[in-house]
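Hey, can you fold this one?
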Amino acid sequence: MAIIRDTEFTSWEWCHENGWDHEKGQYREIIQIGAVKIEGSKIIEENLRYVLPLKNPQLSWYIQKLTGITQDTLQREGEWFTEIYTHLLQWWADHSWYSYGKDREVLRETAQIHNIDVSSSFFSSCYDIRPIFEKIYEGLWKATSGTAHKVIWLSDRYFEHDALWDAKNIARVVKHLNIVL
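Sure. Predicted structure:
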């Protein structure tokens, strides 16, 4: 059994190219976590959580447009990361978990903002799935978690930059490529 997860986090136009400027208050904070628990290639459980950002409580228009996550959604459905972290420890216990890219870094940054110790084994049990994909299908490194399915010609039925969709998408790619996690 394994967990595939994806995150969406605070961002502003040009941050990906220029880096997050802490002097301008730009911190990468998770605002959405989507995860699927898989057994073999079958999704057996799904989990979606909205996270209230601490340092950047007001979402930028850029991230709202990119993800479709509104300020209203966060206010209605959001939880503090400290509450979600407790849930994640239980839900992800004793499982390896995978993300497409460097989501572990953003998870660590968010935890540090909330004064959570990042030295626990929880943070070291995450693996970037891109190298596994790349060994099997050249060219997947160019894709994002929301577009990897297009590279291997799977149908496009969902919304990119939604953490749960992106996690499901990676699970579909795992199944299609016959990868055992």
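The longest strand covers residues 42-52. Let me know if you want another pass with a different chain boundary.
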